Amino acid sequence: PPSFPFSLKTCGVSSGSLINIVCSHAYYKIYISYGQMIDLPLRSNAKGGGIGGHGSLAVSWDHIQDYLQTGEDKGANIEFGGKSDRENLRFTPTLLSNISSDSKVMEEEIFGPILSLMTYSDLDQAIEFINHKQKPLALYVFAGDRKVIKRVEKETSAGMMAINDVVVQFAHPNLPIGGVNNSGIGKAHGHAGFLAFSNEKAVVRQRRGFTMAKSIYPPYTGFKKFMIDLMVKYF
User: Fold this and answer.
1) Residues 7, 152: contact at Cβ < 8 Å?
2) Which secondary structure element, helix H or strand E, spans residue 145, and what is its range?
3) Which of 53, 65, 95, 224 is buried deepest, with most CB atoms within 10 A?
4) Cα–Cα distance, 29 to 95 (Å, whole number)
5) Are 153 and 123 in contact (CB under 8 A)?
6) What is the pLDDT of residue 55?
7) Nearest-angstrom CA–CA distance, 8 and 152
């Protein structure tokens, strides 16, 4: 089977909300081993890594903790990370494996440092998994086989797609950036952004005297009824 990973979704660079990666069994152990090498300690006095400010933004910490807890309750394993500090609103980068597909962490945008890792046996299974979920904002495929890349491109739907890299599409000024269906409506950047944030006002000026449109206006003579019947039948 093809051995390459998919990243199903991110929501921009700043939010850090990678939701899940679908990878072959061969890549599974590689992800975990590399992740364990960079497993970070929880440091409440660190300058970075906070969830946000205090007050109402503490709710974000609670939501992330809930995603982690409900994932564990459904059998997920914490391969590394999972350490948190509510007082200082900090959460270490966390990798989950063996996740149930109906866990909240697999169904919702989490806007937090939790990465879910799924495995597949063949490309059909990976594509089926992607299509079974809501359409992602962005889909990233890492592969060297052009046929594999083409299949993923044609058989899945996403707001954006990048091949062998992530989030680089945001740097291109002329690419339309945005989601599809649940992941967003409308596009930004370049010409697509100009159209999205502009109002195209439709203006129609009808000429005076006889026009084709007036052939179906009242009063309804026998000829006009005939014309209407023709339009209904053929148009």
Assistant:
1) no
2) none
3) 95
4) 12
5) no
6) 43
7) 12
Cβ atoms of residues 35 and 18 within 8 Å: no
Token pair for 100: 């149930």
Pairing of strands 138-141, 160-163: parallel
Which tokens in the block code for residue 213?
């449109």
Of residues 117, 100, 94, the one with CA closest to residue 8: 117
Per-residue pLDDT tens digits for 91-113? 888 888 888 888 888 887 777 88
Nearest to 4 by CA among 18, 24, 28: 24
Cα gap 174→189, rounded to integer Å: 6
Return all residues near 142 (Cβ < 8 A) that are at least 6 apart.
Answer: 4, 5, 6, 163, 164
Q: Each residue of 22-43: pLDDT tens digit?
A: 666 666 677 677 666 665 566 6
Nearest Cα to Cα of residue 29 among 81, 93, 97, 78: 97
- From the list 40, 37, 52, the residue with the least C-alpha distance to 81 is 40
Cβ neighbourhood burial of 219 (10 Å; 0-12, 13-18, 19+) = exposed
Please report, for residues 14, 54, 87, 191, the alpha-carbon distance to residue 57 in angstroms, rounded to integers and kept in the order given.
16, 6, 12, 35
User: Which residues 6+ apart lie within 8 Å of 88 measured at CB?
Assistant: 44, 45, 50
Nearest to 21 by CA among 119, 98, 151, 108: 119
